Amino acid sequence: MKKGIKKASPEQENCIQQQMPLLPGLLPEGLKSCAFSGHRELPENFDGQELEKMIETLVGAGVTTFFFGGAVGFDLLAANCILRFKEKFPKIVLVACIPCDGQEKYYSAEEKEQYVRALAQSGEVVILSGHYYRGCMLRRNDYMAERADALIAFCRKNTGGTAYTVRAFRKRGKPVFFV
């Protein structure tokens, strides 16, 4: 192995294996909240309908609180999906878990617009730090893992923030559902 390159631990290598199906009759009892985590870049063929079906299944099972981290890509897509469901199910609450003030600083104009709209329509906005620091995104992920009962993830690699979040939920014995 080359100097400076670390081999992934077995836990890191298989973070996206052992996928649990999200089926109404097989959901663990007592789920009241769910978080979202996924990659910032989504493939062109990403199917948002699968995400909507998962959310609908969870809402039908009594989940009313949804946490999102405010990142572009999957996070904002999931938040917008929840806001559409909120029109039909007004008891749903969207909680924005923002790692640091100014997170949207480098977002495109369209992404900033989606971000601002999602925050404005969230039932709660939690800003975990007044400024960016190394590790603040992971702190946000831990915050959601501590509070949410389950996770819906779009995870296609075993490194990065989404893989970290999947492992954080699994360490706590919480279900992770993959889109």
Chain-wise SSE layout:
Blueprint: H1 10-13, E1 33-38, H2 48-60, E2 65-68, H3 74-88, E3 93-98, H4 109-120, E4 124-127, H5 136-147, E5 150-154, H6 161-171, E6 176-178
Report the principal-axis shape. globular
User: How many individual β-strands?
Assistant: 6
Biggest beta sheet attributes:
6 strands, parallel
Helix fraction, binned, reads: 25-40%
Q: Averaging pLDDT over every residue, what do you get?
A: 88
Strand content: 15-25%
Write the CATH architecture name. Answer: 3-Layer(aba) Sandwich
Radius of gyration: 16 Å
Please state how the strands of the largest beta sheet are arranged side by side.
4-3-2-1-5-6
Number of helices: 6
Number of domains: 1
Derived structural class:
alpha/beta
Order of helices and strands: HEHEHEHEHEHE
Low-confidence stretches: 1-13
What's the CATH topology name? Rossmann fold
Distance between the termini: 34 Å
What is the highest CATH level, the class?
Answer: Alpha Beta
Please, could you describe this protein's structure?
This protein is α/β, with parallel strands linked by helices and 179 residues long. The protein has one domain: Rossmann fold, CATH 3.40.50. The protein is built from six helices and six strands. It has helices at residues 10-13, 48-60, 74-88, 109-120, 136-147, 161-171; strands at 33-38, 65-68, 93-98, 124-127, 150-154, 176-178. It has a six-stranded parallel beta sheet with strand order 4-3-2-1-5-6, sandwiched between helices. It is globular, with a radius of gyration of 16 Å.
